[in-house]
Amino acid sequence: MKNDLLQVGVIGAGMIGALHARNIARKTQGAAVAAVMDVDSERAQVVAADCGAQAYTDAGALIADPAVDALLIASPDAFHAEQTLACIDAGKPVLCEKPMATSVADGERVLQAELAAGRRLAQVGFMRVYDQTHADVYDMLARGDIGKALSFRGEHINPWRENSSIEGAIINSLIHDIHSARWLMNAEISQVFVQWVRSEPDQPRSARYAIVQLAFADGAIGTLEWSGDSGYGYEIVVEITGEAGKARTISHSSPVLRRGHTASQGVSPDWPQRFAQAYLNEVQIWVDAIRGGQPTGPSAWDGYMSLVVAEACIRSVESGLPERAVGRQRPALYNPR
Ligand code: ISE
After folding, report:
1. Do 281 and 249 share a structural domain?
2. Which of 172, 235, 279 to mutate to test the pocket of ligand 1 (most atoms within 8 A of CB)?
């Protein structure tokens, strides 16, 4: 801490890393950006200067810097597991953007490292937990407003995404919906079946659109709908059907304009705009939790179990059949408080 501010090091100065860094520097109470790392030194310097921070090109040096109290990882997915492990090894709290790793094996390594440390240090960037309309649906289910949940329906509608493979869509994009389904249904996903439409007719694994069918361990069912090129914008919807009703997120907060026999409503262009407030809430609550000594939010267990389901989806892509998702037993460290 310096000047009673948690000193955060940001790894990765791309779109999401720069967004997090500027949120911490300008809008987060109790924290400051101490340093920004990127392999592109110029990009690191631009964001660091914007945040009054030092610039690094080496993640290991940033993590080891004694002036840095906590880390936020926003590097490319392939680096997340190793960098999270380095933070745990250094005993520093870390908010790692999803996915926590790109394989179950690496997710397991992060779990083992936290269990060896005997405490939760890692949080995973499933920011929909901090989106008001998702939190409202969670509260409805927790209160029993719709009775026992029978089905989960998620829509993840992206604007154009470059060269999406079905595997990339699962690990990088649908990982959000997998977590949302586990979190809101309060149940593990036990089986998946993936079907998709190619974006390039001659490339079997290219993906324009996908449907994932889910079976939950408690008998509920669900579907995830994914688009890699909506043609109209960015839209995230969750609808849960229960024995006594339905709970559905509000997908747009923009007003509806009625004019000339037409009703129209704005649609978010993409995730930074749709989840701007959720990202702010996420990092503020993460900082408050570190300062208060009480870890919170999506844990390494959530990161691991989302990967268990994601790898089952990839097996379904390969087999063309439904596949079981079976993870390890949940360690007590991750039992609900
Ligand atoms: C991106 O990485 C995100 O995390 C967004 O939330 C998601 O909607 C998008 O599909 C991903 O590419």
Report:
1. no
2. 172
